[in-house]
Structure formats: structure tokens, C-alpha cells
Amino acid sequence: MKDTIIQYMKRFTDLSDAELEKIAEDLHVTTFKKGTILLHQGEVPDKCYFVLKGCVRQYAVDESGKEITFNFFTEEQSVTIFNQHMNNKASNYSICCMEDCVLVEGDLSIEQDMYNMYPGLEKMTRKIIEENIGEMHDDFASFMVSTPKERYKALLKKRPGLIQRVPQHQLASYLGITPESLSRIKKRLE
User: Fold this and answer.
1) In the chain, what are the domains?
2) pTM metric for this prediction
């Protein structure tokens, strides 16, 4: 697992192999069981995660009690709730393990200490965040102008394994459609 972390970090930094090894050794890798809630909607986040193995869902429950899925995170994706800009730091989302997961667990309270200990880490983290935000922006823009069928086809192309990993009703919510509409789209495409 440490090799996976190091290879991922190499994409975003020119830190030496020795520095990357040291950072990887200091990371806290934790196993979570399927169904574990990593963050409840309304709690103040104090952790961030990086998925080594498994699938994590980001969702919210609206006023009527309906769950809305915003994202799924799988291998080599980071899971962070960015809400430090808000007066109320409470999360608008819950984060739950959809499968047994192996995650790098970061403690946000020692983030600055880690940056002080490893001067290149902050720059690397910024590059990772910039890539993630860029992808989210592109995905959102594409989502807004596409039909449900186009969204499903894009998901098949970009993240084909997700279809077998998550329940259909959550996948439909993620695509912004009903489970019945998703079933019809799948039938038409078969």
C-alpha cells in the first residue's frame, strides 16, 4: 500500500524518494468496515482521507428525508470536505464506506505541523487539490449540459467499475435521475 501512496505523490511533486518514503511512513492507514460513517452531516470535519482500497460515498439528507448522492470516491482519490470558508464549519454532507475500505486517514488539526515538517508537502497538496477541483468543475459543467443518457454513458466511460460497486438507487441519485429512469436507460443501451 505504501508503494501506491508514493507513486500517487510522485505525480504532484519533485520531492526525493527518501522524502516521499518518510512522508509515507508517517501516514496513518486505517481499515474501515462497510457501512462505517466517516462523517455525519452536521458534524465539523476533523479528518481527510485517501482511498487505497474500497469505495466511499458522499451524500446528504434533505429536509424531506431523501438521500442525495453527490460523489463516490474509489482507489487513488482523496475525500475531503472543504468548508473552512464557512462561518459554521459543520459539514453539509455525510461520508460513508460503501465497501470494506483501506484509507489513509489525515488529521486536519496537525495539517500545518506536517507542512512544517515536510516543506514540499504543502505545494504537493495544493497541486492535488487543484487537480481535484478542476475535475469536479469539469464534471459539474458536463453534468449541467448533458441528458441523463449522456451522463450514464459518460459514467460508463470514465468510471465503468462503479456500476457494479454501488446500489442502483444511489447511482441514479448521483446521476440526478430516478432509479426507474436509470433502468430504462440501461435497457436502451443494452
Assistant:
1) 2-119 (2.60.120.10)
2) 0.88
